Amino acid sequence: MSNNVVLEACGLGKTYQDGQITVEVLKDVHLTLAVGELIAVIGASGVGKSTLLHLLGGLDQYTSGNVRIQGVEWSQQSEVERCRLRNEKVGFVYQLHHLLPEFNVLENVCMPLLIAGEKPLQAQEKAADILDKVGLSHRLRHRIGELSGGERQRTAIARALVKKPACVLADEPTGNLDQRTAEKVYDLFLELNRAYGTSLIMVTHDMRLAERLEKVYHIVDKKLERKK
Ligand SMILES: Nc1ncnc2c1ncn2[C@@H]1O[C@H](COP(=O)(O)OP(=O)(O)O)[C@@H](O)[C@H]1O
Ligand SMILES: [Mg+2]
Fold first, then answer.
1. Which of 14, 173, 223, 228 could form a disulfide with 216 if both were Cys (CB 3.0 to 4.6 A apart)?
2. Going edge to edge, which strands form the sheet with 223-226?
């Protein structure tokens, strides 16, 4: 494996087992994500986009093949080690923000740093810095419930990027916003990833947004196909 590779999936497959019923969602998926590369994965609802992101990010277990993050295979790690690796190397952004409502904006963005053992003051400085970059300096002490949809997603983006992870995995990050807000948040998101040199895999069903990235893949017949 070259040092230039952040994430690599080889012959990846996932079958869900629900009692008597087995559902094969992904089959023989190959993907290489290089340092600083931004790629989009598109596909209709239910084709396995979220499943793919969960496998790539070590959140769910694959049934065949393997995924390596900076050369380390998820399935070879203990649960504790997987948690540590995720915290260190991966930033997640979801369609619904998944922020903690009982904490304010600054505290939410500090969380990944505190979990990694950073001192509170240092964590606050870093969090405030990235919140400034996403235009939320004036909202640091606001609870999540007091924010607009766009502000929540910008907070979620700040939280995903605050540790400057090797890669960000985003699952329809603007899917829940109105079109104008979605465009703005999306542009900001790409700009930040590029500025940080973070690799990005973005899942969407919006072809227009996907087209702005240099590489686009489709999930077709359980496999990943390069379209652009
Ligand atoms: N935990 C699960 N158990 C059984 N089937 C699941 C589970 N999660 C997802 N699926 C099925 O896998 C398929 C892909 O789901 P998903 O990855 O969420 O698709 P997408 O994100 O593209 O909409 C769907 O048919 C869904 O019903
Ligand atoms: Mg999904």
1. 228
2. 90-93, 167-171, 199-204, 38-42, 215-220, 223-226
φ and ψ of 192, to 5 deg: -65, -45
Q: Using CA positions, which residue lies closest to atom 1 of ligand 1?
A: 16
Tokens of 161: 């990027």
Residues with CB under 6 A from ligand 1: 16, 18, 23, 25, 43, 45-51
Of the candidates 46, 67, 6, 3, the one whose C-alpha atom is nearest the C-alpha of residue 193 is 6
Written as tens digits, the pLDDT of the chain (228 aa) is: 568 999 999 999 999 998 999 999 999 999 999 999 999 999 999 999 999 999 999 999 999 999 999 999 999 999 999 999 999 999 999 988 899 999 999 999 999 999 999 999 999 999 999 999 999 999 999 999 999 999 999 999 999 999 999 999 999 999 889 999 999 999 999 999 999 999 999 999 888 889 999 899 999 999 999 998
Specify the CATH number for the domain of residue 163. Answer: 3.40.50.300
Residue nearest to atom 17 of ligand 1 (CA): 48
How many domains are contained in the chain? 1
Residues whose CB is under 5 A from ligand 2 (ion)? 49-50
d(CA 46, ligand 1 centre) in Å: 6
